[in-house]
Amino acid sequence: GLSPERLDFTDEGIAFIVDEHTHEAGVRKLEQNVASICRAIAVRLAGGEDVRELATPALVEKLLGGSKKSEQVPEREPRPGVANGLAWTPAGGEVMLVEATRMPGSGSLQLTGRMGDVMKESAATAFSYVRSRASTFGLPDDFLSKIDVHIHLPQGAVPKEGTSAGLTIVVAIVSMLTRRKTRVDVAMTGEITLRGQVLRVTG
User: E-strand spans in the chain?
Assistant: First the structure.
């Protein structure tokens, strides 16, 4: 029962709903959020208020609350051992950070961040590739004799799977070992092979 004179949506308001309150390939959540805003205005009308609202980002945020998305953002400051990857999601994809660090040890690899079995194999392949090309990266042959390597994918409660993080893991490991900062304006995806080839992105 609402007319455009009572409630109208701006393009910016719709974009704000999509960007901050939906995270899916379809439009179901968009429809639900639009309906929530309409109901809020209808309640005011039913209470006798002469409502004439324009659904701008400010009104949308007032009625729906703050952002519901929890996606990662790229690093803003270059630092060794952190690389920006790209992950496929049903909503189209997002940035996925890969962190690598070192600690005293004897050459073992630790993986955390709810990686699936396929992703763990991809990380092991990336680690083996770096080890086999140590001299190429300016590392001594025995560089692992006194350190362990830990690779972590933040947002540890979110399951992660697939092979396409291999390239990003290589970059994070090499960056950490050589103490060279990675670029913050580049993100990457692709499966790495033991020979260092990057396979085409699938799916």
Answer: 7-9, 53-55, 82-87, 94-104, 109-112, 147-152
Q: How far apart are CA 23 and CA 132, in angstroms?
A: 40
CA 185 vs. chain centroid, Å, equals 14
Burial class (CB in 10 A: 0-12, 13-18, 19+), 202: exposed
Residue whose C-alpha is closest to residue 101's, from 92, 109, 90: 109
pLDDT per position as a tens digit, 136-166: 999 998 999 999 999 999 887 677 888 889 9
Integer angstrom CA distances of residue 40 from 10, 29, 56, 167: 17, 17, 15, 48
pTM score of the predicted model? 0.70
Distance of CA 77 to the CA centre of its chain: 17
How many Å separate Cα 36 from the centre of its chain?
28
Question: pLDDT per residue over 53-102, tens digit each?
Answer: 999 999 999 999 887 765 556 667 889 999 999 887 766 678 889 999 99
